[in-house]
Give the backbone structure.
Amino acid sequence: MLEGKNIILGITGGIAAYKSAMLLRLLVKAGAQVQVVITPNGKEFITPVTLSALSGRPVISEFFTANSGEWHSHVDLGLWADAMIVAPATASTLAKMATGVADNMLVTTYLSSKCPVFVAPAMDLDMMAHPSTTRNLATLRADGVRIIEAASGELASHLTGKGRMEEPEKIVAVLDAFFDGCGSRRLEGRKVLISAGPTRERIDPVRYIGNFSTGKMGYAIARRAAAEGAEVTLVSGPVGISIDDPAVKVVAVESAREMLAACEDAFADADIAIMAAAVADYAPAECAGRKIKREHCDFDEIKLVKNPDIAATLGSRKRPGQILVGFALETDNAAEHAAEKLVRKHLDMIVVNSLADAGAGFGTDTNKISIQYADGRPDGIFDLKSKDEVAADIIDAITRL
Ligand code: C5P
């Protein structure tokens, strides 16, 4: 989808700037024309020679070319671009973008741009967690900038935490999915409800029953549905990821009962509901008001009650024309279990994945699915793909219904 696209790659002064060379290489390989705009500090981390060789264009950093006095028009650049991506985006550049401090070519270009803008923050974990950075990111988000969240891992400071610039391959995948979604807006005007992540069922104020779901698949579906024009309500259990799309309303819940209430609310006027959450099957009959002390309690004796089945509840209330999609994550006999759920929960379509398949399931960035349909059309069988690509396949299958 990046073929022929004009992309401004903004590079700022962070250690992660070395990854920008790879990002540039991947963008060019995907067929994009890339104009690098680098801050004066950025040049301390990666040389314009490398970047101009990879992009095939002179790198822009100053307002004027020193020798000729030629003016670099940030206005023209801003109009030329189909997208702008600032990677790495340092705390300082994020602050300047959020407040309009246009003292370099990169921020000036940002302020002149008419295209979608993405930022991939990269900084030390304490800078990342600082209220000032949080505030600036919130401002940028509200201004419509799409944040490609920093990942967690080892940082340049040798500390470990959130602050690593997202990998170039993932940034390219985000841009690719964005342009892909722009091309086909098959869900324009549709309201889509998505459940995602795990639920937590409280035992006492410090303990809960939960599962390993990370929400990645559900969030990928939400991004894709929004990119295709849908108005999305994402009912999410506790996860460590976020979504930055004005078309996605996130309703954060904790327990299965809270998830049911939020889903019932949104289902009333939804056209499509996709149940991707891993809902805990049982909850403690009661949550202790205080921390249960080991000395006073035998944990073998926690009484459990069955949680509501959200998908089945919605299935029993489905209006004609509403589409309900479920998931079946199985360890064995996946196809048979899924077929039974399809009928019992009144689903129109069920996405089946098996923990027996390498690369499928919780926490991975990939998935391998098959799809069963209630109307008897043949099953869809798919290869192992990134969760973004799987999300595209799922949305594609839904639009065919
Ligand atoms: O029965 P099982 O948990 O395998 O069913 C999986 C499907 O049902 C998923 O779509 C899941 O989101 C949904 N589900 C639900 N509420 C539950 C259990 C599962 O919505 N309590």
User: Anything to note?
Assistant: DSSP finds 13 helices and 21 strands in the chain. The CA atoms of residues 253 and 259 lie 6 Å apart.
